[in-house]
From TrEMBL:
Protein source organism: Hyphobacterium marinum
Keywords: DNA-binding, Transcription, Transcription regulation
Keyword Transcription regulation among UniProt keywords: yes
Protein name: TetR/AcrR family transcriptional regulator
PANTHER family, alphabetized: HTH-TYPE TRANSCRIPTIONAL REGULATOR LMRA, TRANSCRIPTIONAL REGULATORY PROTEIN
């Protein structure tokens, strides 16, 4: 007989609540009471697990990295044999994720770091680890694509990987400023065209789609 699913702990409930509440209200405007209400736990439970709201912010960034890391590790963009196809498929996948309301597709760590970069160094550093750590997962495919095409660029795989994240985070800012998901999608389309131009693809102006299955 299969075991029943494990009951979520108060800590996990608070972290899950943070992913939604902070992306909706921002870190500064989010209170401990907001998080407790969303998680359905007491304030005593909050302070049992976290010394402060800042401590929750650091843990939330780490939890976000864990959750999104699992999502991206199992995503279909890893399937193509050609490394450039994998990179383009990754960008197309990021575009596909622009679904639902703003808090559902924007980035927790991008939201927090904009508010806390100067006031909460521990949160800033946790967010930086999350963003740069995700960028690092793209570097091997970029390096392989450079080698496969015999390129000798003045830019590095690391710099391009970080640039993809800069554009995507900027797309979220544009979405929040009133453009919604469409302007974010348009921004990623431009990024896909840019990457195609970097690698000398003739169809750089083609629609922003990428093959994610066998040819």
């Amino acid at each position: 007989m299969s075991k029943p699913p494990m009951k979520a702990t108060a800590r996990t409930k608070l972290l899950e609540a943070a992913l939604t509440v902070i992306r909706t209200k921002g870190f500064s405007a989010t209170t401990v009471d907001d998080l407790c209400a969303a998680a359905g736990v007491t304030k005593g439970a909050f302070f049992h697990h976290f010394q402060s709201k800042d401590a929750l912010g650091v843990a939330a960034a780490e939890y976000w990295s864990e959750m999104t890391g699992t999502l991206f590790a199992g995503a279909p963009y890893h399937a193509p044999e050609d490394p450039l196809d994998r990179l383009l498929a990754y960008l197309a996948f990021r575009k596909e994720l622009l679904a639902g309301d703003l808090p559902e597709f924007t980035c927790l760590v991008g939201t927090m770091v904009q508010e806390t970069y100067d006031t909460a160094p521990a949160i800033r550093d946790a967010c930086a680890r999350s963003i740069t750590g995700h960028a690092e997962t793209l570097e091997a495919d970029i390096e392989a694509a450079i080698r496969a095409r015999g390129l000798t660029p003045t830019w590095s795989a690391k710099s391009l990987a970080l640039h993809t994240q800069a554009v995507i985070q900027g797309a979220f800012i544009l979405a929040k400023s009133g453009g919604g998901a469409q302007i974010a999608a348009d921004t990623i389309d431009h990024l896909i065209r840019y990457v195609k131009l970097l690698f000398g693809l003739a169809d750089a102006s083609a629609p922003a789609t990428a093959r994610v299955g066998p040819a």
